[in-house]
Amino acid sequence: MGGSLAGLLAAHVLAGHADQVTVVERDSFPEGAQPRSGVPQGRHPHVLLEGGQTALESLLPGFLAELRAAGAPRVGMPSDMAQCQDGRWFRRLPATTHIYTGSRAQLEELVRRRVLANPVIGVVEGSDVVGLLGDASRVRGVRLRDRSGDSRGEERVLEADLVVDASGSGTKAPQWLTAIGAEAPHEETIDTGLAYASRIYRGKPGALDGDTLGYYVYPSPAQVHAGGALPLEDGSHLVIVSGLRGDEPPTGDDAFVAYAKKLPHPLLHRWLDEAEPLTPPFGYRRTSNARRRYDLPGHRPAGFLATGDALCTFNPIYGQGMAVAAMSAVALRDVLADPRETPTTLRVQRAVLAASKQAWDISAGADRKMPGAVGTAVEGKPADRAADWYLARVQERYPSDPVVGRAFRSVLTLAAPVTTLFAPPVARAVLFQPAAPPLTEPPAAPEQPGA
Ligand SMILES: Cc1cc2nc3c(=O)[nH]c(=O)nc-3n(C[C@H](O)[C@H](O)[C@H](O)COP(=O)(O)OP(=O)(O)OC[C@H]3O[C@@H](n4cnc5c(N)ncnc54)[C@H](O)[C@@H]3O)c2cc1C
């Protein structure tokens, strides 16, 4: 259910184990890399973190070369961007990781083309899943309703031995499970009320086209506005501004630009003043973290799995969802390939959920501390206090210390486990070295290696 990143990548893995895999998608897929209504977030920045790059490459060998060949900008961090958090500008040290900042539509189209070339995988486009077949002990397929053509509005059934929910953050699967007599999962939520507005611009020649590829101001509990400009594949920039509940960024032309003045530095506002808008601003407000605990005890049927945003949705400001969709597909592949264990529904679901744990800990851990955060998981555990103390020291040193910076970036980009932050050289810098005085202005150029 759902033919976006999580659905396509799950289909790709399952094609190695099934006679036939059918992807059911509400939208009709566009020709080429176009935004589509079933993925409204596609108009907003979508960075692909290193953990996601590794996962995609392992699922679809050669994928990163295809992405590069299609023009997706590959941005070295922290060298190629002017970045700031809490009034501290980051030193532009040599890159220790890269992110891809091309459009979401382009990335999805490349994945779709690769995955749907497999003859085992079929697609039913322009059809809504409207319910499940089966009972509390076993899901046996789905009910579909066509959205267009002569059969518009007609319902039919599609039987299946395994149904995978990849229908995104707005999934109705919990209600559909209840309707067949099974139990809906417990849902953990943390909602900061974060809202985005994004718009594509072409910058004035000479600005953001040399060795500074983009800007980014990150939010924090003390400074809740974020904003930046990230390069797209055609040389334009996708500009985002964001704020919290009650102070959402507007989508009017002038008001969008004026909102950038709320950032703690005039850099983005100045750039916008001279840049040419290529689209209207688009808003987005559904940014709650939500994790559906199908792994916990309950009356759950066999033959039903959830993945991607339908299983675990993150506040998008941390840029993790696509990476986790790909890492979850790798987890699905690995658990199905394990000859020592019978892949029961519960065992497979646990493995898929485990692939999102680090990303959840990062976004839930940070969002709990944001002013006005609400939800069922907003309370931390007492043990979080010691971790918070250590993390605050990491964050103070991260913008300027090469050792702490490398370690923290590798964790945030889902390329290395959280334990990396406690490796002896990192712990020494965090515990015993004073934080360097913050840079109060953005460095104009990358630092040279060894400088
Ligand atoms: C504003 C914003 C910015 C983001 N930025 C980033 C970022 O920088 N980096 C990053 O990695 N991630 C980012 N994400 C997260 C990313 O968009 C998702 O995590 C990613 O798309 C995973 O997608 P998915 O396939 O699980 O769901 P989605 O991409 O949401 O797709 C769900 C699919 O299911 C289909 N569907 C829904 N209901 C039905 C139904 N009943 N029947 C049939 N089909 C159905 C939809 O049409 C859609 O195609 C961002 C998200 C948002 C909201």
UniProtKB/TrEMBL annotation:
Q: What's the short name of a Pfam family annotated to this entry?
A: FAD_binding_3
Q: Which SUPFAM superfamilies match?
A: FAD/NAD(P)-binding domain
**Keywords for this protein:** Monooxygenase, Oxidoreductase
Q: Which GO terms describe its molecular function?
A: FAD binding; monooxygenase activity
Q: Does the keyword Oxidoreductase apply?
A: yes
Asked whether the UniProt record includes Oxidoreductase among its keywords, one would answer yes
Q: What PANTHER family does the entry give?
A: THIAMINE THIAZOLE SYNTHASE
Q: What is this protein called?
A: Monooxygenase
Please tell me the species this chain comes from.
Streptomyces lincolnensis
Task: Write the lineage as a comma-separated list.
Answer: Bacteria, Bacillati, Actinomycetota, Actinomycetes, Kitasatosporales
